[in-house]
């Protein structure tokens, strides 16, 4: 038989999913045998793309954990890293471990909102308008940056 994309190439291999003949150029090794490039791409899409319900659940878990733990980045730098990781993990669990760009944005946004809400709340309790000054202090910004960075990284790669 001939490859579905390259009619001049003789082959003995079929895609393990859609069953079309594929030549060495077209095949991609996967966990369940050889696949054609289309099926391979579809497979990646199912990892990356979530349904609206999965996005909603991911966002709920992300913001829930962030609002619960937003005090962490203001105490110690390594707590900021941990906080980011936890928010990322919550996003992944809520969404069924979808790692698409949208989910990364949700995790990063949630980490930022949680940290800012706690910073503002604490500062407002401490002394009104100084809240805004405190929010702009370099340590708070470093903690905020690390939180967001690790939340996004955890959803994306780790
Ligand atoms: Zn296929
Ligand atoms: Zn081919």
Description:
- There is one protein chain.
- The protein has helices at 37-48, 52-69, 77-95, 101-127, 130-135, 138-156; strands spanning 13-14, 21-22, 28-30, 33-35.
- With 158 residues, it is mostly helical.
- α2 (52-69) runs antiparallel to α3 and α3 runs parallel beside α6 (138-156).
- The protein is built from six helices and four strands.
- Helices cover 64% and strands 6% of the residues.
- β3 and β4 form a beta hairpin.
- It is rod-shaped, with a radius of gyration of 23 Å.
- The chain has two domains: 13-48, no CATH class; 52-157, no CATH class.
- The model has no long low-confidence stretch (mean pLDDT 88).
- The strands form two sheets. Strands 1-2 form a two-stranded antiparallel ribbon.
Structural features:
rod-shaped, binds zinc ion, mainly alpha, 6 helices, 158 residues
Helix tally? 6
The chain-level structural class is mainly alpha
Average of per-residue pLDDT values: 88
> How is the main sheet built?
2 strands, antiparallel
Number of strands: 4
Bound compounds, each kind once, are: zinc ion
Order of helices and strands: EEEEHHHHHH
Q: Count up the domains.
A: 2
Strand order within the widest beta sheet? 1-2
């Amino acid at each position: 038989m001939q490859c579905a994309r390259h009619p001049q190439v003789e082959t003995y291999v079929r895609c393990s999913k859609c069953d079309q003949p594929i030549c060495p150029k077209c095949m991609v090794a996967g966990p369940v045998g050889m696949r054609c490039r289309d099926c391979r791409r579809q497979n990646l899409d199912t990892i990356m793309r979530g349904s609206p319900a999965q996005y909603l659940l991911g966002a709920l878990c992300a913001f829930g954990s962030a609002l619960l733990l937003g005090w962490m980045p203001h105490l110690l730098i390594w707590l900021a890293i941990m906080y980011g990781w936890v928010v990322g993990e919550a996003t992944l669990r809520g969404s069924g471990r979808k790692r698409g760009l949208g989910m990364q944005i949700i995790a990063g946004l949630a980490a930022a909102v949680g940290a800012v809400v706690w910073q503002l709340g604490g500062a407002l309790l401490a002394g009104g308008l100084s809240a805004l000054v405190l929010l702009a202090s370099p340590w708070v910004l470093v903690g905020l940056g690390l939180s967001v960075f690790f939340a996004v990284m955890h959803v994306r790669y780790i």
